[in-house]
Design brief:
By secondary structure, this protein is an all-alpha fold. It has one domain: Na+/H+ antiporter like fold (Up-down Bundle), CATH 1.20.1530.20. It has helices spanning 2-23, 29-54, 57-60, 63-86, 91-102, 106-147, 155-162, 166-179, 186-196, 199-210, 220-245, 251-260, 267-274, 279-304. α4 packs across α6 (106-147). It is a multi-pass membrane protein.
Length: 305
């Protein structure tokens, strides 16, 4: 147990540090906003590109695990709407509830946990999985919010959010470099290593700094269901499928389960606000799932490692 705690605790210590620095005004709103833009448009795409470009896709890519990932995400997408109908959830809340359940903080939380739990190879596999999961969850997020919104989604908005966002571009370029077996010059490799090294710590600091108690609001029943579905049911679904067809779970399968057990994505709040969803349900689910993920990450690592 102490070993597992030592894997996860650095991530949550940095999260707590972000909160402390924010409390003493050493991290301010302007810094957080600028850092989030830097992370989203430069640092994280560069990290994904760098790690995927270094991967041997022909040996690292596992079609079975990819299919498990797609089936799991789509199953949680459907389950969320079924649960929402059972509890007679309002239209504005339903799409946000569903999005919180399948769209996780794969980048800011999943990548660090994968790295600390499984090393550089784990980070590489997690980056490769993100290349395929990002467009999928973007697509389903837009569908979830559009089904229950009075606002129509334009085709350009659809394309921009699914295929042309910086994370998707970084992933696509990484896949191209990997398939073409393009090697970086020494100085480029060291530059990318130096640049991307700041990505995960800075992302964690920003998440911690933005977590506020007053953001825990919205439908408590929906938030409780999000904690259950996002942190336990979703990774268990993948675990069950993999265990059914294989006696052992490969490293790629282990990384997938950890990625799927990540808390709700912070971007869900932005999407819910801009696409006629329920920002309160989004923020409550994000904050509480992030806090409780400390315990569920340890649980899933205990099961897998």
């Amino acid at each position: 147990m102490l070993h597992l705690l030592s894997i996860v605790s650095p991530i949550f210590i940095v999260l707590a540090l972000g909160k402390i620095l924010s409390f003493f005004n050493l991290i301010k709103t302007d810094f957080i906003n600028a850092s989030n833009r830097l992370i989203f448009f430069v640092l994280l795409p560069a990290l994904l590109f760098y790690k995927i470009a270094q991967a041997e896709i022909y040996t690292s890519f596992n079609l079975t695990i990819f299919l498990v990932m797609c089936v799991t995400v789509f199953s949680i997408f459907l389950l969320s709407f079924i649960v929402g109908r059972i509890f007679h959830v309002g239209k504005k809340q339903l799409g946000t509830f569903a999005m919180n359940n399948f769209r996780a903080n794969y980048a800011y939380m999943g990548l660090p946990v994968s790295y600390y739990a499984f090393g550089d190879e784990g980070l590489m596999i997690a980056s490769l999985l993100m290349a395929f999961i990002v467009p999928l969850v973007n697509l389903l997020s837009i569908i979830s919010l559009s089904l229950n919104s009075s606002k129509k989604v334009r085709m350009w908005t659809f394309i921009k959010n699914t295929l042309l966002n910086p994370l998707a571009i970084g992933c696509i370029l990484g896949i191209i470099f990997s398939l073409a077996k393009i090697e970086f010059y020494y100085f480029i490799d060291k530059t990318l290593s130096l640049l991307t090294g700041v990505t995960l710590p800075l992302a964690l600091l920003c998440i911690g700094a933005t977590m506020k108690r007053e953001m825990i609001r919205g439908n408590k029943l929906l938030i409780a269901n999000t904690l259950l579905i996002k942190l336990l049911v979703m990774p268990f679904t993948a675990f069950l499928i993999i265990s059914t067809f294989s006696e052992t779970i490969s490293l790629t399968g282990q990384v997938l389960i950890i990625m799927l057990s990540s808390p709700a994505a912070t971007v869900n709040y932005v999407l819910a606000s801009s696409m006629d969803g329920d920002p309160d349900v989004a923020s409550g689910g994000i904050i509480l799932s992030t806090v409780f993920s400390l315990f569920t990450y340890i649980f899933w690592l205990a099961v897998l490692v």
